[in-house]
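ok here's Berberine bridge enzyme-like 18, seq below lol
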Amino acid sequence: MHSDNFSSISKVIYTRNNSSFSSILDFSTPTTPKPQVIVTPLKESHVQAAVKCSPKYGMQVRVRSGEAKTAWVQAGATIGKLYHAIAEKSKTLAFPAGVCPTVGVGGHFSGGGYGFLMRKYGLAADNVVDAHLIVVNGRLLDRKSMGEDLFWAIRGGGGASFGVIVAWKIKLVTVPETVTAFIVNRTLEQNATKIVDRWQYVADKLHEDLYIRVFLSSATSSRRGKKTIRASFESLFLGGADTLLPLMQQSFPELGLVKQDCIEMSWIESVMYFAGFRGRSLDVLLNRTQPNVRFFKAKSDFVKEPIPEIAFLGIYEKFYEKEAEDAEISFTPYGGIMNEISDFETPFPYRAGTIYKIQHMVRWEEEGTAYVNCRDLDIGTNNKGYTSYKQASIWGLKYFNKNFNRLVLVKTMVDAGNFFSNEQSFPPLSSRKKNRD
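and the structure came out like this:
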């Protein structure tokens, strides 16, 4: 077997020693013979490799179909409602979407969709296998009728430029019955800077079952009420605490994780935990609004080289300013399967080579702005409800890199008249000819 193929297929091979083996074998009964190896192919080459290699090792292949593990989700549903529906059906199935349960799946999936399972299974958009889309002439299209170019575009390019997405077909993913979560806080007095600096070098290299994100914010020290900086490490591990602790000791001992920090729970309980609903009924996930609405603005970037440790001192100075009392910076780790997915597989281009995503955020109470799918409306927009090609390329290249021009071509193909337009929608090529200034 070619080494590249082996590396790829090894991601979907489960032996009896693998912690996920039992949950993958969810079609068995106590009397069902247990296979030596399970292969959950993601593409045809995985099947080819399994068939070719099995005879060399004296193994026979048994094909098990009917375990599609897919679901249709209407675009108006929230992430919380999706998670609730999955939990009602299974303890070992999940979906790699975001943390905030009131976010609608329509925009979340079409823009990419970050979540705690991204290092294991990728973004939400990476796990979409079909969609229903209404285009400008009123036709309702599925993946087959819309074609692969348009299906590619709506999985990460945003759906609002191309039509109205009414439903998504998603591929559910397997999780163990027990996962482990922790939130560990460290202040400057507890060596936070050096721990965060070390996190930069290991976060994308940790085992793909382990996800640790970091929040930096101002805080009040226990020492005479002095202001300080707090680093919060939030983590989900797909397994038990007894497996996690030695893994952390080996990979990230600087955090000083101990068993008392770890909370074992089910995957759906981890959803509740990180959403701030621990101990409440799962039905809270069905709420479409939150009781306390806060407004915020955020800007993102993708970090390819660690920030020098000394640079954090300059960041801390900003936190001490009055306007930054409610500000925070978050670091979202990459690595795992995100390194395996091509930059061109979907419009979302930030894959291998990215250490983490950094997001700068400030919050306030008064109404006065809106948030739509993490867009930065400070970049290359006007107030006319549309953008020229020249303007769009400013934000388009930042969002999508080399995928931007393909998205413009798809836009031209399905909506040449630019019916679906907004401040940051893709311009058809006709607008490029009219706006060569």
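fwiw The mean pLDDT is 87. kinda neat tbh
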